[in-house]
């Protein structure tokens, strides 16, 4: 932990919360040269497997943030499900609908499993390697804001301090203290607005287990004397399993180590002493809730502070990291004076509707009304309705790539598009056209022949990998470039 006396207390951006959202945002800001500080109430990174599924779109994001090799090394593919009945294997079942090869022009087609504690470690290492800072044991107790910035009150074991930041991002989870201090409410499922998707509590634990193979995701349906389901998934890159057990509404869940062992023995053919080295235990009721706003003045909400998901379908962590990816480049452009502050209005415009859609999807999956498939991989998400999406071509087919869509990858004439896009810059891509294009300082340029995923034309790709502007030639590009802070030479 860095000594408080050595910390500069005036920063461009204060990020509250050192979970995947806050750390990913910290990485994105650090690589843009933004002076940012991440503070975390806990004394260290949160333990537990929690959000263990990294969807293909988030894999693309992590590739761009420079941690793909580490994420690959730390995880593995999801195993097939094994259904158990009366102590015997009763057949295998895929846990996800299969993806087509190269679906959506991505090298990633299936979710990748990495325990959340390991994802956090990787992002923190990347952040500190870029010169970023994380301080633990710091709790935000309140703030006030004015035209120029935010004054934040922070409590720690060393006493209370005041920090001045130009912007604050709340990434401090579903019980966000910053969201409450900002007076932002949440609206959720259920007649009472509590967000409870399912009143049945769920127990989750990480443990070593003897007697189960690591080649299957073991599923024990309710039956006989069992009052609920149990699923036991081997955690890739570790020697542990994640245990998930459901209980009837109103049950007082025993979340002690002995309680975990007891329910494991009651619902499987194995004994309680098969469960050892319990390193994390948690219980909760699945919720789905959406913040009424994602921004108040200079304070932004991201991740679970803005939207709370049922874990079904693996959408929470992924939607959260993509919040950070959307906000990071916009904060960087405004703080460097390259773009007007109005650019920041598009964060809520773009991300709140996405979060609402993903909340609906995860809730349907939780209730058994949808399966984990193409939608959950998040490659098809985009911002066609955004004010930042300007499409100047006419007569496009319904399937055509348009402004606001995610820019597909692929290799054309030896040019690997994701290699061109990787980094904090914009990219001006000319596809199958002889159109002359302007010089945009700081913008990477590439020219390839006709490519079916793009058709032909000129595409200005945003730093977060979505098409901002598209045309048959460069006419009209200058006006758009000026609006987003790109000067034209």
Report on this model:
Helix 1 (20-31) links the parallel strand 1 (10-16) and strand 2. The chain folds into 3 domains: 4-45 and 54-75 and 114-190 and 288-377, FAD/NAD(P)-binding domain, CATH 3.50.50; 76-108 and 199-285, Alpha-Beta Plaits (2-Layer Sandwich), CATH 3.30.70.2450; 390-483, Glutaredoxin. Helix 1 runs parallel beside helix 4 (116-129). The strands form 6 sheets. Strands 1, 2, 8, 9, 10, 11, 19 and 20 form an 8-stranded mixed sheet that branches. Strands 6-5-14-15-16-13-17 form a 7-stranded mixed sheet, with helices on one face. The chain has helices spanning 20-31, 56-64, 68-74, 116-129, 177-181, 257-267, 316-335, 345-366, 417-421, 477-483; strands spanning 10-16, 36-40, 53-54, 76-77, 80-85, 88-93, 112-113, 133-136, 139-145, 150-156, 159-170, 186-188, 202-209, 216-220, 230-234, 241-246, 275-284, 289-291, 295-296, 299-301, 307-308, 390-391, 411-412, 415-416, 427-431, 444-448, 457-461, 467-471. It is built from 10 helices and 28 strands. With 489 residues, the chain is of the alpha+beta class.
List its traits.
globular; 3 domains; 27% strand; alpha+beta; 489 residues; eight-stranded mixed sheet; 10 helices; seven-stranded mixed sheet; disordered N terminus; FAD/NAD(P)-binding domain; Glutaredoxin; Alpha-Beta Plaits
